[in-house]
Amino acid sequence: MFPWLAYGHIFPYLELSKRLLIRKNFYIYLCSTPINFTSINTFIRNNNLSESIEVVQLHLQPSHELPPHYHTTKNLPSHLAFTLIKAFQTAKSSFSDIITTLKPDLIMYDGFQPWAARLASSQGIPAVYFTPLGAATVSYAYNKCVCGDDSDFPFQELCLKDDERKTLDDLLQFMSYNMLTKDDERGEVFRHDGMAKFALGEKEISVEDALPKGFLERSSLNESLYFGVPVIGMPMKLTMFIDCKMLAEAGAAMEVVRDKNGAYKGEEIAKAKKKVVVETSGEGLRQRARELSNMMKMQEDQELDEVAEDLWRLCLKSKD
Fold it and tell me: Which of 59-63, 257-261, 275-279, 287-291 has the lowest mean pLDDT?
């Protein structure tokens, strides 16, 4: 397991690991930087997975600008976001040494390191791409990479406005110049999250510190839908906009209206909360959220059974 260095990516990998281990007798190595070890090991310990999951240290080249405590998105200053992504690419040799030593039967990798699949292939190891993203975001970003714009995107209701598109465009452009070979450009889609900051006077506080303990680890969007809770959408950057539009189109979310300057006002936030939580006019949203919750719970076990079986077959095949 080789996720990107953000909690919003690491914990979906851990949750998937937990569910796979219920179904099959895997032994899982999870590769990350030491700054993330405490949170990862807490999850492993709390879920009694110490016999089945082992944490493996990934080495990034040290630099004055990006010391080891910034080898994660948690508490990372926003101006260092792209610096961390670029530094992550220096881990190729470390990861190559890891898989040479451990000789895993399968590698599961995230979107920020397409080179992981090439390294796996060079050693005859099957590789599976796993992203915490939803299908709407993946399809939109892929179309953007291939076509250059979203004019031909078949789901126009999900297309972003100019002000919404900027941070995603900046990221994709950065990726194409700093990470991808020509062969990669048409085949990989990327996401960067966990970088949002709240300004409190002169002090910045990360989302991870601002929210209740464990909130991000559980993935608040998925958790809301899973338990039938309608979503009040206030997207700020990157793929948040697409997620919000997709849920609104599905009838399970209401996006807060911005003012002409693109800011959220307290009156509009209160209006959205009142409709979604209290008013009779919001019953349709609440009902739709309950319906989606039932669908997710019905499909979860079957889909995870199929995934576990497919991954198990790949592991056995690599031993042949």
Answer: 257-261
| Structure token pair of residue 60 | 């990034």
Task: Report which secondary-structure segment, H or E, holds 107.
Answer: strand 107-109
The percent of residues above 90 in pLDDT, for the chain, comes to 41
Tokens representing 98? 């890891």
Q: Tell me how far the alpha carbon of residue 219 is from its chain's centroid.
A: 9
Domains of the chain, start order: 1-132 (3.40.50.2000), 207-287 (3.40.50.2000)
Please tell me which residue in 69, 97, 105, 110 is annotated as part of the active site.
110
Residues 146-179 pLDDT 10s: 777 777 777 777 777 766 666 566 656 655 545 4
13: helix, coil or strand? helix
CB atoms within 10 A of CB 206: 20
Among residues 9, 71, 192, 193, the one annotated as catalytic is 9
Mean pLDDT, residues 65-69 taken together: 94
DSSP notation for 191-258: ---S--EEEETTEEEEHHHHSPTTTTTT-HHHHHHHTT--EEE---STTHHHHHHHHHHTTSEEEPPB
Q: CA neighbours within 13 Å on the CB side: how many for 134?
A: 16
Does the pLDDT of residue 28 top 80, yes or no?
yes
Q: Is 69 a catalytic residue?
A: no
* Cα–Cα distance, 37 to 137 (Å, whole number): 29
